[in-house]
Amino acid sequence: MHGFSYKNGSLFCEDVDLSTLAAEHGTPLYVYSAGTIIDHYTRLDAALDGVDHEVAYAVKANSNLSVLRLLATKGAGFDIVSGGELFRVIKAGGDPAHCTFAGVGKTRDEIVYALEQGIYSFNVESEEELRYLDKVAGELGMIAPAAVRVNPNVDAKTHKYISTGKSENKFGVDFTAIEELYERASKELPNIRLRGLQMHIGSQLTSISPFIEAVEKVTPLVLTLKEKHGIEFWSIGGGIGIIYKESLESGAVDWWESQPLEERPLTISRYGEELVPRLKGLGLKILLEPGRLIVGNSGVLLTKCLFEKRGSAKTFKIVDAGMNDLIRPALYEGHHEIVPLSEPPTGERFKVDVVGPICESGDFFCQDRLLPDFQPGDYIALMSAGAYGFAMASNYNSRPLPAEILVEGGTATVIRKRQTLDDVIAGEL
Ligand SMILES: *Cc1c(COP(=O)(O)O)cnc(C)c1O
Question: For residue 202, which atom of ligand 1 is closest to its CA?
Fold first, then answer.
């Protein structure tokens, strides 16, 4: 569910008319619903009632300071993947003691910074990294809290670029090698405090079964580690999927209730109902690392149609947003629902490609999709753009990064100014 819907024929975010925002601030423009972000966080937190847990928002999904601040004030922890993300969390008022640091390639500078800030845990992805962490901590006279990421070798059945829990992925340590690694670390690495175990099997999972499979498979291991090494937490990762195809429609409760039970996409409450009974007796603190679930359907990218180009084979709608603003379709074949900001008067649909202005054939938002009519000068919204949208934007083709707006009820605040051309060349000789 989310805060985007048509009211009297205009698409609104909470109580703000998106056409007005587009006209006032220009396009491309990212708009986020604060209410939706908070709702997702709060519902997930509540779904885990009954187990000692913490929701550590995966900062990489959307790292705008105002988004982080919003979550920090609700009590979220943060899962970070770089020193830069830790810097952002601290600037936004987040507590490093509630930060976990993931990623396969942490640098010495990043490790030192995170140690000095007192993060909760380094989530380590190899024995080499664990040994390096021990060495750096030793040089600083510090003890590094750590968890190893276990690769449980389950199939997340998601796009190959966002599947991470199989043996052939670069992530984590083989399930079968973990116990011996903890054994060696406890004897040989005096500057490491083995604090937990971590896993994350992939992203955009819309079925509960891979989560259940991974939790059931790893439970005996985590209990052994608790007994032998006194670990205190188990992070079960993020990866809960969201609705992309009928994103706008899924804003309403009715839509969810109308989905046939056996095909109903994974909901927050189902996630909780299935996992809480499996996790609650373990005597461990359970960490969750959701990114997409919290922010994905909390944001849209607004763009203006510039031209309609009728080719012999296809009709192209050329818009002012490009793959540099939203790369998911080009990178992961990601699907974003496209809706006009003015509600179409009829149900008539036309087969079109919506493409950006970038000099790449991959620069499209949809191909051969049936869409309601919109014309040059009209605005459209690319739905579900709150996660891995702005965070992955670049200056490719020397295009300034778009502005970002946060809506809270009837108030819209610019939380990141649109870049100027001077910003684009700043720092160059
Ligand atoms: C990316 C990532 C997440 C968040 O994934 P979502 O699919 O956005 O929930 C969580 N944990 C780790 C280790 C990640 O790399």
Answer: 7
Q: What percent of the chain has pLDDT over 70?
A: 97
The CATH code of domain 34-295 reads 3.20.20.10
CATH architecture for the domain at 4-30+297-423: Beta Barrel (2.40)
Per the CB < 8 A criterion, the answer to whether 44 and 290 are in contact is yes
Mutate to test the pocket of ligand 1, among 55, 60, 243 (most ligand atoms within 8 A of CB): 60
Asked whether 382 and 305 are in contact (CB, 8 A), the reply is no
- Please, what is the end-to-end C-alpha distance for the chain in angstroms? 48
> Which numbered atom of ligand 1 lies nearest the CA of 292?
8
173 vs 319: CA distance, rounded Å: 44
What are the residue boundaries of the structural domains of the chain, listed by start?
4-30+297-423, 34-295
Q: What is the pLDDT of residues 343-386, one digit of tens each?
A: 988 889 999 999 999 989 899 999 999 999 999 999 999 999 99
- Ligand 1 centre from 272 Cα, in Å? 18
